[in-house]
Design brief:
The protein contains 26 helices and nine strands. Helices cover 59% and strands 7% of the residues. β7 and β8 form a beta hairpin.
């Protein structure tokens, strides 16, 4: 910060000295003079005081400050600042808001800039956001003033009224005068040693959001002021709307004047004097009583601000000392909200939410030669197999843009071929904050899988305590049958070696779940009973059975690997009976997960039989698949044919997720143009289908 800047000079605590002096003057000089008027007011109007109205004023102030961070959030989104968790952003806003009571709001500004820098935002963009927030707040307050001014009546002096009209007009003029915006921007940015010659282009829709959010917050705060005066027994005005209009005007006008006198911490005293001046004609006792009541309302506002800031601090304290429980609570709240938005999105009432299930194919490389997947045959394909894999810097931007997910599924190719897999998981923990991380593997590299898994577990312990890591080696047959289906001699022995290593790790890491998964295809459907029986001897946490699918992702369309519906249903009856038996000793959460699988098996059989979406599909709404080349798909089945876009240096995930192409693909899915038994997708669909969800809960409770 430049030594000659205004903010630097403020650090000499001149503002604090002025505040103390003003407080002393008020209590020693003004209050003795005002006291008789206050006593007279209370004697004549005190009997009309209303505690319910005072409580209503508190509630309105609380609502006003609840919406106060919304404009800041919308501005950051419009500037395409790296995605920041909404809860973290709001908490920082409330905590730094208390910095407005330090000299000249210096600590509030520095606190927000520091927070943005810690989340990957440059100082330039952070200062730009601050400039835009103030510009659009001025415009919003100008609009409020213009709405209120015609209804003021003749109680204010003409000079004050004219000054207000001019000020409001100039504030709104800033919206249509880029030159004024540039001057304002340069002036403010200079205090932070930032040269700002141009402001970014902001769409009319975004401007409407900024201004509307500010008007909502300030209107609620203004109504809180009106109700507070009525709660103190101040009679209504004639005409009745005049006092409401004055309160609508008093809040923005006092803020504007306090902004000019920024060296006074929080504008305390200045703002209340302005409000007292405006409201004096409605109060017996005039300026003395009106200012005192306004100071009382200011105390309520400070209490509201402290409550929000305290809630934020307590939340951070709980996250630090009870990280696992807070992680789980956060996941449930996010999951609920995404589910609601997902339903609204499918009915064209909302933008798509954070996907609750994100699958990321970290590589297209694989050493297996599976009969059910032909990725290994497509080394010259123009898709992700041949394309460069996303580097960590791009993955960092990608995950920031996604923001949050419940289930993070690492896919491939073979995920453990990525030497930086633990760092990919670190970025996922930091930005996606998943409840579950799932990594399948072909088990061909037992030592590397063991070493990398332990690295990942340590990363999770540091970044996201309580997040479950599930490692699932493929198990498609016993002995030579597994090797034949997987195409690699000796694979089965390496599978057993990998499982022993993972189970040894499980003894030391509470949140490691070890499982195996069988892809049921025409190559092993006749041996499934013996495969299930053998799986029971492996001492794993979970055994998952999924149907082999013909997917664009696997380049196996037309391969005929999927069992027919009758065969699959018979296979599933055996598997379901085994799973039901194993549920008896499970905890409730594990039972719910297992019950969901049981419901899925019935759904998969029905989909194969009817060749339609048996329940509504939320692919591309609650589920997202990221290809190794940055392609964004609604699911692995549509894959390249359903690509919504591709992440690159100039395109963020959120841009693709909200694009017209994505909306077009979602419409096709909603219209039933596709149908598949994809397990990952089916679990999200079950959560959103009341009948299937109730069936899941019933099975879980029944056990």
């Amino acid at each position: 910060m430049h030594k000659n800047s205004r903010f630097y000079k403020i650090q000499n605590w001149a503002g604090l000295i002025l505040l103390i002096a003003a407080g002393y003057y008020f209590y020693s000089e003004l209050l003795p003079d005002w006291q008789p008027k206050l006593e007279e007011f209370w004697a004549t109007s005190g009997q009309n005081a209303s505690r319910p109205l005072m409580l209503l004023s508190f509630a309105l102030a609380w609502l006003g400050y609840y919406f106060a961070p919304l404009p800041w959030q919308k501005i950051l989104e419009a500037l395409k600042i790296p995605k920041i968790d909404r809860g973290e952003l709001r908490r920082n806003w409330y905590i730094t808001q208390m910095g407005s009571y330090m000299p000249g709001k210096l600590w509030m500004v520095l606190g927000r800039l520091t927070f943005l820098r810690a989340n990957g935002t440059s100082t330039f963009k952070g200062v730009t956001a601050l400039v835009l927030e103030n510009i659009y707040m001025l415009v919003a307050l100008g609009i409020l003033a213009l709405v209120a001014l015609p209804f003021l009546g003749t109680d204010l002096p003409s000079a004050v009224t004219i000054a207000l009209w001019v000020s409001a007009g100039l504030a709104i003029l800033m919206l249509f005068a880029p030159g004024l915006q540039k001057v304002f921007a340069r002036r403010l940015a200079k205090n932070f040693d930032v040269d700002m010659e141009e402001l970014p282009h902001i769409s009319h829709m975004d401007q409407f959001k900024f201004i509307g959010a500010h008007i909502l917050s300030w209107s609620l705060r203004s109504l809180a002021l009106y109700v507070w005066f009525r709660g103190f027994g101040v009679p209504g005005s004639s005409p009745p709307y005049a006092m409401v209009a004055v309160c609508l005007l008093a809040a923005p006008a006092s803020w504007l004047i306090a902004l000019v006198m920024v060296f006074i911490p929080g504008g305390i005293g200045v703002r209340e004097s302005i409000r007292g001046l405006f409201l004096a004609p409605f109060v017996v006792g005039g300026m003395a009583v009106a200012t005192t009541i306004a100071l009382g309302q200011r105390a309520i506002v400070i209490i509201v601000e402290i409550l929000f800031a305290t809630q934020a601090v307590v939340y951070l304290f709980l996250c630090k000392h009870f990280p696992v429980r807070m992680n789980h609570l956060n996941q449930l709240s996010h999951l609920t909200w995404s589910g609601i938005k997902g339903w609204l999105c499918r009915h064209n009432l909302s933008k798509p939410p954070h996907p609750i299930n994100v699958t990321f194919s970290v590589t297209g490389k694989c050493q297996s030669r599976c009969k059910t997947c032909y990725i290994w045959k497509e080394s010259n394909h123009e898709s992700s197999v041949a394309s460069p894999e996303l580097d960590l810097a791009t993955i960092d931007r990608l995950f920031r843009s996604i923001g949050w997910t419940y289930f993070f599924n690492v896919s491939g190719g073979e995920p453990f071929l990525r030497k930086d897999l633990d760092e990919i998981v670190r970025l996922a923990c930091r930005h996606l904050k998943p409840a579950v991380i799932h990594i399948p593997t072909n088990a061909l590299m037992p030592e590397r899988i063991e070493t990398t898994t332990e690295k990942i577990l340590k990363v999770i312990r540091e970044e996201a305590p309580g997040t479950v890591l599930s490692i699932k080696p493929s198990f498609d047959g016993i002995g030579e049958q597994h090797d034949e289906i997987r195409g690699i001699p000796g694979n089965f022995e390496k599978l057993l070696d990998t499982l022993e290593r993972l189970k040894a790790l499980r003894e030391r890491y509470e949140y490691l779940h070890v499982g195996v998964g069988t892809v049921v295809s025409r190559f092993n459907q006749d041996n499934l009973e013996s495969i299930i029986a053998y799986a029971a001897t492996l001492e794993v946490d979970t055994y998952i059975n999924e149907i082999a699918e013909e997917r664009e992702e696997f380049f196996n369309l037309g391969s005929g690997i999927t069992p027919d519906e009758d065969s699959y249903r018979k296979i599933m009856l055996t598997f379901k009976e085994t799973v039901r038996t194993s549920m008896k000793g499970m905890k409730l959460l594990s039972r719910i997960t297992t019950a969901m699988r049981l419901v899925y098996y019935d759904l998969a059989a029905d989909i194969l039989k009817e060749n339609r979406q048996v329940i509504p599909c939320y692919a591309g709404i609650l589920n997202a698949h990221i290809n190794s080349d940055g392609g964004i798909w609604p699911c692995a089945v549509l894959a390249y044919n359903g690509q919504m876009g591709r992440v690159d240096d100039n395109t963020e995930f959120i841009d693709i997720w909200n694009s017209k192409e994505a909306a077009k693909i979602r419409k096709g899915i909603k219209d039933g143009e596709c149908a598949c038994p994809l397990a990952n997708q089916a679990y999200s669909n079950i959560l959103m289908d009341p009948k299937s969800l109730l069936k899941t809960i019933w099975i879980a409770v029944k056990g």
